[in-house]
């Protein structure tokens, strides 16, 4: 039995690499894998197994997902009175990214001596793609939101992200003992990284940190953004919802259509502030 054939490979993968994976995740991985296999059998019939799959096949499959959705079609039936309307479900950008991630994991289990290069090992979206650049706020948009934001915690979150490019969870992890403000940096601890990251700060953010640190200077274990943490623990979605409302209030359209996609996607969200941080460095914004 050839374990690397399309029909046998997934069972071999489950019995070896994925033994500790949950049933639900395995079911999802199996769906992704066999959708790709069925796609290959139609468009690349000469491929006999996973060892024959190359990067070009993986890229074309991801492009197919983007334009037409799953190859093995799932139809949703909507009942409108006495009529039933069938339409094909188009995949969101996040779902397509998830498909590629699962296939990357499955193909990673192949013996490197048999196949040294994983066909799904490629950047899912380049930094220069239209979708990525469209998600970064302009300086004018950032200023407009900042000037009109009356929500204290949201203001703190926006200010932090646009000056560091970090996430809300990164923000909430900072403690007084992590600050070395006289030297202009703080230490960032992340769960899966044993060595802390030294993050350089200056200008308005450094002044903000110094003011916040004065409040709890006697308690080195205190968290820097206590108000944000309290709100997050009470309702994790509240900051994101408040940000969406703010965008609407200042006239920023947060969703729209892009080339190659029939359905609307989120053009702007909190992560857009992270892209704006990168844009601010590239364009040398002055704060």
Short description:
The chain is mostly helical and 287 residues long. The protein has helices at residues 6-16, 23-43, 55-68, 93-107, 130-134, 139-148, 152-164, 168-172, 203-215, 226-234, 238-249, 270-283, and strands at 75-80, 83-88, 179-180, 185-188, 197-200, 255-256, 265-266.
Q: Which helices and strands appear, and what pairs or packs with what?
A:
Elements: H1 6-16, H2 23-43, H3 55-68, E1 75-80, E2 83-88, H4 93-107, H5 130-134, H6 139-148, H7 152-164, H8 168-172, E3 179-180, E4 185-188, E5 197-200, H9 203-215, H10 226-234, H11 238-249, E6 255-256, E7 265-266, H12 270-283
Antiparallel strand pairs: 1-2, 3-4, 4-5, 6-7
Structure, described:
The chain is mainly alpha-helical. It has twelve helices and seven strands. The protein has two domains: 6-124, no CATH class; 131-283, Intergrase catalytic core (hpI Integrase, Chain A). It has helices at residues 6-16, 23-43, 55-68, 93-107, 130-134, 139-148, 152-164, 168-172, 203-215, 226-234, 238-249, 270-283, and strands at residues 75-80, 83-88, 179-180, 185-188, 197-200, 255-256, 265-266. The strands form three sheets. It has a three-stranded antiparallel beta sheet, with helices on one face. Helix 2 (23-43) packs across helix 4 (93-107). Residues 83-87 and 126-133 have low confidence and may be disordered.
């Amino acid at each position: 039995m050839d374990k690397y054939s399309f029909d046998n490979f997934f069972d071999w993968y489950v019995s070896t690499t994925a033994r500790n994976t949950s049933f639900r995740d395995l079911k999802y991985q199996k769906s992704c894998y066999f959708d790709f296999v069925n796609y290959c059998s139609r468009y690349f019939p000469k491929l006999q197994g996973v060892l024959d799959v190359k990067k070009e096949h993986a890229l074309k499959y991801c492009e197919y997902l983007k334009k037409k959705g799953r190859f093995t079609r799932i139809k949703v039936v909507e009942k409108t009175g006495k009529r039933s309307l069938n339409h094909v479900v188009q995949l969101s950008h996040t779902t397509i990214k998830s498909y590629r991630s699962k296939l990357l994991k499955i193909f990673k289990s192949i013996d490197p001596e048999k196949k040294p290069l994983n066909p799904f090992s490629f950047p899912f979206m380049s930094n220069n793609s239209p979708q990525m650049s469209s998600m970064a706020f302009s300086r004018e948009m950032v200023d407009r939101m900042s000037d009109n934001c009356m929500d204290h915690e949201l203001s703190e979150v926006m200010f932090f992200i646009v000056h560091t490019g970090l996430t809300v969870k990164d923000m909430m992890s900072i403690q007084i003992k992590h600050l070395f403000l006289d030297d202009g940096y703080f230490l960032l601890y992340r769960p899966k990284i044993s060595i802390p990251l030294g993050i350089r700060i200056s200008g308005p953010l450094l002044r903000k940190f110094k003011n916040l640190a004065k409040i709890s200077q006697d308690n080195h274990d205190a968290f820097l953004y206590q108000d944000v943490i309290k709100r997050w623990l009470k309702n994790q979605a509240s900051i994101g919802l408040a940000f969406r409302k703010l965008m609407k209030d200042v006239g920023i359209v947060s969703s729209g259509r892009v080339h190659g996609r029939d359905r609307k996607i989120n053009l702007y969200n909190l992560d857009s502030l992270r892209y704006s941080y990168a844009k601010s460095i590239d364009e040398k914004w002055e704060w």
